[in-house]
Specification:
By secondary structure, the protein is of the alpha/beta class. It contains 18 helices and 12 strands. It is globular, with a radius of gyration of 23 Å.
Length: 422
C-alpha cells in the first residue's frame, strides 16, 4: 500500500498513459474503478496534467534523452511536473512521492530516472519555463492547429478563449421552477453554508464547485447541474404550453429537462446512443418530468418520425466540444484538425434531416458547444443557402442573428442560431 499522494500519482499516471495512447479519459476513469477518496485526488491530478499537457510534454522533451519504454513512466513524470508547477512550495514532497510511486512501475527500475528528471527540472526551472513561455503550444497549452484556428476565427478574443480552456470550470445550477424558485433555493444554499449567487431567474453560480451529493435538494429534483450558457437554449426556443417539441441528440437530457420545466409541452427526446439515452430517463425521473424517449440516428428520419410535424426543434448537434474543453481537457490532445470537418459533415446531415420534420412557421434552434466557425456560423450560412424556406431570426442574446457565448468565468463556449421555416 502506497502513501495517499503516491497512490494518486500512480493512478493518475496510468490514466494519462491511456489518454496518450488515444483513449477517452472518462472511459478509462470509469474502468479504473477507483474508490472515492482516491478517485477524487486522482481526477484532480489528471485533469491538471491534461490541461497543461502541451507544457509538460515540451518540458519532458528537454529533460529526457529518449522516451521511456513504459508509457506509465511518462505519465508519472507529466503528472509530477504539473504538480511541481502548481505547488512549488511542495516540491520536495512531490518528488519524494513520485519516486515512491515509481516503485510500482517496472519492478522499481524507474525510480532513479524519475528522481533524476524531476530534480533536474527543479535545478533548471527558470531556464526551462522561459523556453516553454516562448513556445506557442507550451505557453497556451493547446495544439498548434487549434491555436491557429482560433486566431483565424476569433482574432480579437483567441487569447481569452485559450486561457479559459486552461481554467477550472464553474459549477452552475439550474433551478427546477416547477418545484422551487431561485430566491428560495439560494436561501437553502445559504442555510447549508454554500456561497452562491443568482445569474438570472433560474441559474445559480456556486462560488466553489461541490459534489452533487452536498447540494441540498439535488436528489429531490430541486435543481440540476447545467452551465449557464447551455441554459440559454430553452429561452431561445421560446416554447409555450401545448407545443410539440423535438430535442434531437438529447442525451444526457439537461436541455430536454429545461424545456419541460419551462412549459407543458409534448416533448420527444431522441438520441442515437442507447447508454446515453438511458441517462435522459434518469434525469427526467429525478426532476419529476416525462417525455417520449426514442433511440435512433436523427438522420434516419423514417426510423423514428411518425409524420407529425414539430413546432419547435432543438438541434443540439455533435461537435468538437471546443467550447467546453476545460471540462474535457483530453479532447484538446485527442482531436485532430480533420475531425472538425468530419463533425461539420455530420451536423449538415442532421439539420437537413430534421428540417423535414419541422412544421411551417416552426423554429429550429441550431446549437453546438464549439467555438470553431466551421461548425457554427459557416454551417448556418451553408444551411440557409441550401434551404430557400429558411430564415435566421435575431436573438435577444446577440446584436447579430446568432448568439455566440465565448467561454469565461461564468459559462462555457456555446453557439446558437434560431431558424424559422417559411
Amino acid at each position: 500500500m502506497l502513501p495517499p499522494l503516491a497512490e494518486s500519482l500512480h493512478a493518475a499516471a496510468g490514466l494519462i498513459a491511456a489518454v496518450i495512447a488515444g483513449r477517452n479519459f472518462d472511459t478509462v476513469l470509469a474502468r479504473a474503478g477507483l474508490p472515492g477518496p482516491l478517485r477524487a485526488a486522482t481526477m484532480d491530478l489528471a485533469y491538471s496534467t491534461l490541461r497543461a499537457f502541451g507544457r509538460g510534454d515540451f518540458l519532458l522533451d528537454r529533460l529526457l534523452a529518449r522516451a521511456p519504454k513504459d508509457a506509465a513512466v511518462r505519465g508519472l513524470l507529466l503528472v509530477a511536473l504539473a504538480r511541481l508547477e502548481a505547488r512549488p512550495d511542495e516540491a520536495h514532497t512531490t518528488v519524494d512521492q513520485a519516486v515512491t510511486a515509481a516503485a510500482r512501475l517496472g519492478k522499481g527500475q524507474f525510480k532513479g530516472l524519475v528522481n533524476g528528471v524531476l530534480r533536474n527540472f527543479l535545478r533548471r526551472r527558470a531556464e526551462l519555463l522561459a523556453l516553454a513561455d516562448a513556445d506557442a503550444v507550451a505557453r497556451w497549452q493547446h495544439p498548434a492547429w487549434w491555436i491557429a484556428r482560433l486566431q483565424q476565427d476569433h482574432p480579437q478574443h483567441w487569447e481569452g478563449i485559450l486561457a479559459a480552456g486552461n481554467s477550472h470550470p464553474p459549477l452552475c445550477l439550474r433551478v427546477n421552477r416547477r418545484r422551487t424558485s431561485a430566491i428560495d433555493f439560494l436561501a437553502q444554499l445559504d442555510a447549508a453554508g454554500i456561497a452562491a449567487r443568482a445569474l438570472d431567474d433560474t441559474a445559480i453560480l456556486l462560488d466553489k464547485p461541490l459534489p452533487v451529493e452536498r447540494i441540498p435538494g439535488f436528489g429531490a429534483g430541486l435543481c440540476s447541474v447545467q452551465d449557464w450558457g447551455a441554459q440559454a437554449a430553452a429561452g431561445l426556443l421560446d416554447v409555450v404550453d401545448g407545443m410539440r417539441v423535438l430535442d434531437a441528440c438529447a442525451a444526457p437530457g439537461g436541455k430536454a429537462a429545461h424545456l419541460l420545466e419551462s412549459a407543458d409541452i409534448e416533448l420527444t427526446a431522441l438520441d442515437a446512443d442507447v447508454m446515453r439515452a438511458a441517462r435522459i430517463g434518469d434525469n427526467l425521473q429525478r426532476l419529476g418530468l416525462a417525455a417520449t424517449m426514442k433511440v435512433a440516428d436523427a438522420r434516419a428520419v423514417d426510423a423514428w418520425w411518425d409524420g407529425r410535424a414539430f413546432e419547435r426543434i432543438l438541434a443540439d448537434v455533435p461537435c468538437s466540444a471546443s467550447g467546453v474543453v476545460r471540462r474535457h481537457p483530453d479532447a484538446k490532445w485527442l482531436r485532430r484538425a480533420a475531425d472538425v470537418a468530419a463533425f461539420a459533415a455530420t451536423q449538415q446531415a442532421i439539420v437537413d434531416a430534421l428540417w423535414l420534420t419541422l412544421a411551417p412557421g416552426g423554429k429550429m434552434l441550431y446549437a453546438t458547444c464549439s467555438v470553431f466557425a466551421q461548425e457554427n456560423a459557416r454551417q448556418v450560412e451553408a444551411f440557409l443557402g441550401r434551404h430557400a424556406d429558411a430564415r435566421q431570426l435575431k436573438t435577444q442574446e446577440a446584436t447579430t442573428s446568432d448568439a455566440h457565448f465565448l467561454p469565461d468565468a461564468e459559462h462555457d463556449g456555446f453557439y446558437f442560431a434560431l431558424l424559422q421555416k417559411a
